[in-house]
Amino acid sequence: MKKKSDALTLREGWKLFCRAMGTLYRRxxxxxxxxxxxxxxxxxxxxxxxxxxxxxxxxxxxxxDPIALRNWVLAALFAAAxxxxxxxLLNRWKNKENCTLxxxxxxxxxxxxxxxxxxDAETTEMRDLLQTIHMNQMGPGFGxxxxxxxxxxxxxxxxVTLGGVALTAGLFLARVPEGAGPLTVLNSPLCVLGVLGAMxxxxxxxxxxxxxxxxxxxxxxxxxxxxxxxxxxSCGLIYHRKYAADVRVYGQEKYTMAFMYDKKGTFMSKxxxxxxxxxxxxxxxxxxxxxxxxxxxxxxxxxxxxALGGAFGVGMVxxxxxAITQLAAGVGVLFGExxxxxxxxxxxxxxxxxxxxxxxxxxxxxxxxxxxxxEYDIEFRDVGFRYPGSDFWALRHVNVKFRVGxxxxxxxxxxxxxxxxxxxxxxxxxxxxxxxxxNGVDIRKYNYDDYMGIxxxxxxxxxxxxxxxxxxxxxxxxxxxxxxxxxxxxAGFGDRLDSLPQGLNTCLGKGYEDSGVDLSGGExxxxxxxxxxxxxxxxxxxxEPTAALDPIAEEEIYTRFGQIITDKTAIxxxxxxxxxxxxxxxxxxxxxxxxxxxxxxxxVADVSGKYNELWYAQAQYYSEEERRxxx
Length: 631
Fold this sequence. Notes:
Elements: H1 10-27, H2 29-61, H3 66-98, H4 101-115, H5 118-121, H6 124-138, H7 144-173, H8 189-219, H9 221-239, H10 244-249, H11 253-261, H12 272-308, H13 314-355, E1 376-386, E2 393-404, E3 407-412, H14 418-425, E4 433-438, E5 441-442, H15 448-452, E6 455-458, H16 469-474, H17 481-490, H18 494-499, H19 521-535, E7 539-543, H20 551-564, E8 569-574, E9 585-590, E10 593-598, H21 600-605, H22 610-619, H23 624-630
Helix pairs in contact: 1-2, 1-7, 1-13, 2-3, 2-7, 2-13, 6-13, 7-13, 8-12, 8-13, 9-11, 12-13, 17-19
């Protein structure tokens, strides 16, 4: 059952609607204006035809003056050509401006999410909020775009109503001749007020019924979104290349296809939404349409009785009958959209909850020092950190000071704090205790983007897109081809590059082009390293990107990488100690703190230390020849 706190007042819904329109207008002013102007033009156009048709019919039914008839026909033709030309121009403008508006509405949300602090963006609450906003737009259609569609309908209703009022004003002012007998009662102000009151009540009743149906659907949007996400995921398993082998080996298509053939499923003919539509939403909307028809009946009766009494001729009957029908539709749309404001407002509230989310991380203004020698002093001063919502200290009392300019290894068992250490260094998170200093300055005082610019990181779960190879390495569409090729060569991808059918234009994967190639794990890792080299940052960090490779292959990759970094600072994170022997210094993490620091030989020689324990625990799985080589 919908909570009372979920309901919004009309005023709250209106404020959210206005803010949504302002947000879209700032993003694409031409798109918003073209939509609204075209809708206004199209709404008023029918009245032009009504006006001139009434004059032509009136002339034919009256004096039949050939000159007057000719003039009215020519005026009608000119007006039709003018309105058609205006519609064509406005349509062209709208099509030009609106071709990407849907995506712009999505980008508004996505750009805000991307700008959030990493620690906030990674929370389950924020990710669920983003998913809900997306599903609201893609499923029932509520959100920013619904605000624009509502604005179009409001303009439509307002213009149709104003046009109808202009063309029907004479209907209520025209008097039945005194000799018309009982029909003279139509001249009574009470009769006029009664007719107007009946029309208003009928319109309100029809709008209330339609809005009640909309509220029924919106109150179930949460269930719809959840099932829509599950439905989309399950159906996607059938054709997604990532799952294709498992789906076929285990016959999972029978399970996933069940969502499509189960008639009691969410979107099927016997599902919950079908039942709601048949039993509650459909009847309410049908009743609303029927009430609107009653409005037309009252209007036609009033027009015909006045015409019968001699208040006006047949030409004006045409005008009044058509105009008052349009007026009824316009008033109905206005009332309907006013009622829709609080409905869509519930979903706009979610959008602005995301857009208003603050950034908590302090953003300094200092620029990082551009050192020609690329050497920096890094110091962790009693650093402690807990992930949001957790009471467990991922790092605690970490005190490390090292002058970087060579190669540093960070080792330890899984969960010992290695990756957290790097995330704090890269300022994806800020310490809860202590501080991190770069060249003696707290890193929070540096400009965030400037500080992030000094790091290139290859994470354990690095991601390559299915775009072409060149943009994958450069991380942008425009890139220096010679520089990309050089970085790929240094990363050990040169021979593979020569074999690619389209070189740097080859897509990684076959998702978009059949000519795309699937890279092996080692090849993808080399591309990721080339991307880190292309950025040319002073710090290059490898955060266990080779965890899926065997120890010997990992050592070979790290050795090659160590030979090409030259003047850069390299930090290696690995739980395999054999890959880090060539580093000048090694940090050993255990249970969230640094327990040892030194060279490989010195740490292995400390038989009571954690590094010695880890080293020989891993060495037992190597052959005797491999152990001699690694030692």
